[in-house]
Specification:
Blueprint: E1 6-11, E2 15-16, H1 34-43, E3 50-53, E4 59-63, H2 65-73, E5 79-85, H3 91-105, H4 110-120, H5 126-133, H6 143-151, H7 157-164, H8 170-177, H9 181-194, H10 198-215, H11 219-223, H12 226-232, H13 239-254, H14 256-271, E6 279-282, E7 291-294, H15 300-315
Parallel strand pairs: 2-4, 3-5
Antiparallel strand pairs: 1-5, 3-4, 6-7
Helix pairs in contact: 1-2, 3-4, 4-6, 8-10, 10-13, 12-13, 13-14
Length: 317
């Protein structure tokens, strides 16, 4: 049975902004962005927040915290239209409304999902929460999915914020959870410093974990080596250059024989003194001894003129 809302003009001073019982967002993401602030200043709140009565003159926020903060900070706003739930509405139902509203927004994050289940499990058992809410998220009603979401809450607040905002990939976040506190933060510090893409986040995580195990040192110790600090410190080097150098250093230490083969190949290529337009390449990971020589031609006529000479050389090979 649908809950009974009433629409009411609410004085913003009567809203308890210190109550976070229904909030599904990491603390770092609570403040409204400049676009929302500007929109509320221009037109007011277009999508009514939902509140629940806490007393005769006090209300708690169910949905729309950022919209309400934007309205309160806009000095032209004193009150706004809200949907209000009665005080006897069950806490689990207010959380369910917030979840529904967040899903309808169209981009609910795994962090919001995890926070929702953490809070709703304070008011109902795991079986009921699994059966009732996982399908709404497009997941099978199996405890495995619930536990996977809750595991993410083991991350530190700023990592949760990065995951929520899309700066940290979910798969990488789960890999970081398998590391100890100092290794996790050391590795994430590099990701944040270099604004690493998803591909590079995965690559640096896998490489650092492998090198750590192989050399019996911590990830923090690996990333504190002088060579790494030298790569990261030069002010004249831009972020993409630092990223490329770090990835190369890690790859060389992860695959030393491959790095040695690559260096030998570069030396061999240099010794041939090839024209700048001519490219020499090897097979992937030197799996074969073949090499490939690439020679560009301006057009087909140019190739036709030179081809007899090339064909003659190939015939005598």
């Amino acid at each position: 049975m649908p809950l009974a809302f009433r629409s009411s003009l609410i004085n913003l001073n009567h809203i308890n902004f210190q109550d976070f019982n229904n909030n599904l967002t990491p603390e770092e993401a609570l403040e409204p962005n400049t676009e929302l602030m500007a929109s509320v200043a221009r037109t007011g709140i277009l999508h009514p927040p939902i509140l629940r009565e806490q007393g005769r003159t006090c209300l708690e926020i169910v949905t729309g915290r950022r919209r309400l903060i934007a309205a309160k900070e806009n000095h032209n706003s004193i009150s706004t239209i809200c949907l209000v739930l009665p005080a006897d509405t069950e806490p689990a139902e207010t959380l369910a409304i917030n979840l529904e509203d967040t899903i309808l927004r169209g981009n609910i994050t795994v962090v919001e999902q995890a926070i929702f289940f953490q809070k709703v499990l304070e008011h109902m058992d795991e079986n009921e929460a699994t059966r009732r809410f996982l399908p709404a998220l497009g997941l099978e009603p199996h405890p495995h999915h619930l536990h996977n979401l809750l595991q993410l809450l083991g991350l530190e607040d700023h990592l949760l914020g990065a995951l929520h905002e899309g700066r940290l990939h979910e798969g990488v976040a789960r890999e970081l959870l398998s590391l100890n506190f100092t290794d996790r933060l050391s590795l994430y510090e590099i990701m944040e410093l270099l604004s690493l893409s998803v591909g590079n986040q995965k690559k640096i995580t896998a490489t650092c974990r492998e090198l750590s195990l192989r050399n019996n040192i911590s990830v923090m110790a690996l990333l504190c080596q002088p060579e790494v600090r030298e790569i990261l410190s030069p002010q004249e080097t831009n972020i993409p250059q630092k990223t490329a150098r770090l990835m190369q250093w890690l790859t060389e230490h992860r695959f030393p024989r491959l790095a040695e083969a690559e260096q030998d190949f570069r030396t061999f290529s240099t010794s041939l003194k090839l024209p700048s337009a001519v490219a020499l390449s090897h097979s992937p990971s030197f799996e074969q001894d073949q090499v490939h020589l690439s020679i560009p031609f301006g057009n087909r006529e140019e190739l036709s003129r030179v081809w007899p000479l090339i064909a003659n050389v190939l015939a005598t090979k």
